[in-house]
Amino acid sequence: MTVPHTSYQRDWVIGHDLTSDDATDDADPPRFALDFNRLKTSIDVRRTRQMGGHLPSAARSNTVPVLFAHYLRGDPTTIDWAHEVVSEAVVDAEKAALSAHHRALRATGGSLRILSEGHGHAADAGQDDNLAERATHGQEAAWSSCANSQRHPATGTVCRSSFLDCFHCGNCLITTAHLPRLLALLDALTLRRHQMSEHDWWARYGPVWAAIRHDVLTKFSPAELERAITDKPADALLDLVEDPWEHP
Predict the structure, then answer these.
(1) pLDDT tens-digit map of 189-225
(2) Collapsing DSSP states into helix, strand and coil, what is residue 34?
(3) Are 170 and 113 in contact (CB under 8 A)?
């Protein structure tokens, strides 16, 4: 609600000869209706632009959340800054998730065993000539095969890890036949991202998402991925790795 003008406001408007934009050709333009909330918004916008849109530096009389929510939500400079901050945060989170994946993988064999058409990437990953046969006869997991579920690379004992941990294990075997399920899993992870906080999502699913995006899908050709898209199952099986299934 606009506060009625005081004498000081009227004198200030007259002294600065402030008029509104509602003037007509045959009449003098009316005086500008000074509103302190509007004036504060203008000051906050100008200060924020002088700071390059960086809200923490621009915040003076309000906290950053209040400043943005009530004064600067529609300001283009501030919006650009916010988009930049969010983008940088996502990049940092993805780098951290990929690093976590690689650390876990180094402790369990060093590399995933991936077999694309033509076996082109099997040799690149240092895999043996019997990889295709091992993948065929390996034990099926939710989204991959396991070369030896009775001997986990890190413990030497029967594997008790989650299916999500398969993507950080040297026993993991992934072939073209697994691609439809992997793509369905990525869709499910994206949906889950909208259902929980960013922090919790990156902690729970970030390393798996990064492993699939960077260390798995990149080993397959665009034609293989295109065919897999048409064969994606409706159920991504993500519930298999959620409570209470994993912890009876």
Answers:
(1) 999 988 888 888 998 999 999 999 888 999 999 999 9
(2) coil
(3) yes
Q: Distances in Å between the alpha carbon of 179 and those of 61, 122, 133, 215, 220?
A: 54, 16, 18, 13, 9
Pair of tokens at residue 100: 């976590």
Distance CA 124, CA 147 (A): 18
Q: Which residues contact 126 (CB under 8 A, 6 or more apart)?
A: 111
Taking the C-alpha atoms of residue 63 and residue 76, their distance in angstroms, rounded to an integer, is 19
- CA distances (Å), 91 to each of 51, 88, 164, 217, 236, in order? 23, 5, 22, 19, 26
Task: For 142-211, give the DSSP string.
Answer: SSSEES-TTS-TTTSS-----GGGGGG-TTEEEEGGGHHHHHHHHHHHHHHHTTS-HHHHHHHHHHHHHI
CA distance 162 to 36: 59
Q: Which two tokens stand for residue 190?
A: 């994206």
pTM for the model stands at: 0.59
Q: Does the N-terminal peptide bond of residue 244 adopt cis geometry, omega within 30 degrees of 0?
A: yes
Nearest alpha-carbon partner for 228 in 168, 176, 160: 176
Is residue 71 exposed (0-12), middle (13-18) or buried (19+ Cβ within 10 Å)? buried
Paired tokens of 62: 């309000």
